[in-house]
Amino acid sequence: MPQKTVSIRGLDTELYHQIFSMAKRSGKRVADLMNIALKQFLESNGNGSDSVRKTDQGDEDCFVLRNNGEIFLSKTDIIVLQKKVGTFKIENRGHLVFEKDVDEEALSYINGLIIHSGVVEAPHTVYPHLLIKSEIYGKLLKY
């Protein structure tokens, strides 16, 4: 595809400088990082809310917890999240650990787990239940 220069009026120059520095440190081009950011925005339905996405069941909105870093979830954490947002999905690109107290009841509040990359660790007692709920491209480990 031929390269085309694109000017973006109103772009925050401080954000641009941060992306420029990040690109330089990682050995990538600014265009590469911008393409990744724009693709991720569009994948979240482009609705400006990166935590809400349509579910497969139809028009119902579902909270999506996206992890690009590191999260440790206990049974209490899952129950509190469910009380605040209802049942939810998890998309992982980082490191996610389900603590030992997580059980079937807690997992019933999670509609699905998509492991794009990264690692998800789960207690052996709930590992089979997570396998059923998961779409795995990364690693799902049991302990």
Tally of separate domains: 2
Give the low-confidence spans. Answer: 46-59
The arrangement of helices and strands along the chain is HHEEEHEEHEEHEE
Helix content: 25-40%
Number of helices: 5
What general form does the structure show?
elongated
Radius of gyration: 18 Å
The amount of beta strand, in percent, is: 25-35%
Describe the structure.
This protein has 5 helices and 9 strands. The chain has 2 domains: 12-43, no CATH class; 47-142, no CATH class. Helices cover 35% and strands 28% of the residues. With 143 residues, it is α/β, with parallel strands linked by helices. The termini are far apart. It has a 5-stranded mixed β-sheet. A 4-stranded parallel β-sheet has the order 3-5-7-9.
Give me some keywords for this one.
9 strands, 143 residues, 4-stranded parallel sheet
Brief summary of the model shown:
By secondary structure, this protein is an alpha/beta fold. The protein has five helices and nine strands; from the N terminus they run H-H-E-E-E-H-E-E-H-E-E-H-E-E. It folds into two domains: 32 residues, no CATH class; 96 residues, no CATH class.
